[in-house]
Design brief:
The chain has helices at residues 12-16, 18-33, 65-78, 82-89, 123-133, 172-179, and strands at 2-10, 41-46, 56-62, 95-104, 136-142, 147-153, 155-157, 162-166, 182-188, 196-205, 211-222, 227-230. Strands 5, 6, 7, 8, 9, 10, 11 and 12 form an eight-stranded antiparallel beta sheet that branches. It starts with a strand and ends in a 6-residue tail after the last strand. With 236 residues, it is α+β, with helices and mostly antiparallel strands. The chain is 26% helix and 37% strand. It has two domains: 2-104, Alpha-Beta Plaits, CATH 3.30.70; 123-235, Electron Transport, Fmn-binding Protein, Chain A (Pnp Oxidase, Chain A).
Length: 236
């Protein structure tokens, strides 16, 4: 993954009226990234200690440099529309862009997510944790006649909830997705065949390199005792 990280300083107007500022940020994010499909995820953080306290860090995630390049071209094309460009530059009222960096993921999976004690965790907490730690998913697809299952390595993307994986286009499940995009499956914490997070959604082939994206429609926490549906929007 490639991460474009902006460092942003809120303006005096934003500091005077933080409620209006954050409402504007929320609306602008929806407007600006609408239709920019190479953007896999966005994230916002506020610096609370250190140099430049209260500056924002805005991260935009792409699959690779090619996806980032397509994003830049798409934004440049939109900038030729005077109305779109007028709305874009209104950001000068609310913030100043200080700098930007490009970061990439390390070559091996790293990162720790602490679990919630089992007796204190509800279904949404368990789903949230498993999606933060699970790396394997079993997919159920069909060509319209014969069902098929296969296991893939997945990356979980948020807001909205999506699963990303790479498979050769000639693989059976890839061919199924091309003609019948409705997919179901289960994300496993350790690749086992036991409980996990069951899901349904719509998948598509996102680029020539075999990357696939599944937009999750429904989720269930599943264990030996029950299947409990969890609203994907409640996961944060």
């Amino acid at each position: 993954m490639l991460h474009l990280v902006y460092r942003i300083k809120p303006s005096p107007a934003a500091e005077r009226d933080p409620h209006a500022f954050w409402a504007w940020v929320r609306d602008r994010e929806r407007w600006f990234y609408d239709g920019l499909d190479t953007v896999l995820a966005t994230r916002w953080r506020v610096r609370t200690i250190g140099q430049d306290v209260h500056t924002l860090e805005h991260t935009v995630t792409f699959a690779d440099e090619a996806a980032w390049g397509r994003y830049r071209r798409a934004v440049a094309d939109r900038g030729s529309d005077p109305e779109w460009e007028r709305r874009r530059v209104e950001q000068g009222r609310w913030w100043t862009l200080l700098d930007a960096d490009l970061l990439s993921d390390p070559p091996v999976p790293l990162g720790i997510t602490r679990d919630t004690p089992e007796d204190a965790a509800g279904p949404a907490d368990r789903v949230r944790h498993l999606l933060g730690t699970g790396r394997r998913a079993t997919l159920a697809t069909t060509d319209g006649t014969t069902p098929w299952i296969d296991t893939v390595d997945v990356t979980v993307l948020r807001d909205p909830l999506r699963l990303l994986w790479r498979s050769p286009r000639e693989a059976r499940h890839s061919r199924d997705v091309a003609t019948h995009p409705d997919v179901s499956g289960i994300v496993h914490a350790d690749g086992s065949a036991g409980g996990g997070v069951r899901f349904t959604g719509t998948a598509r082939d996102s680029d020539p390199l075999g990357r696939h994206v599944l937009h999750v429609a429904r989720l269930w926490w599943s264990d030996d005792e029950q299947d409990v549906e969890v609203d994907p929007r409640a996961l944060g």
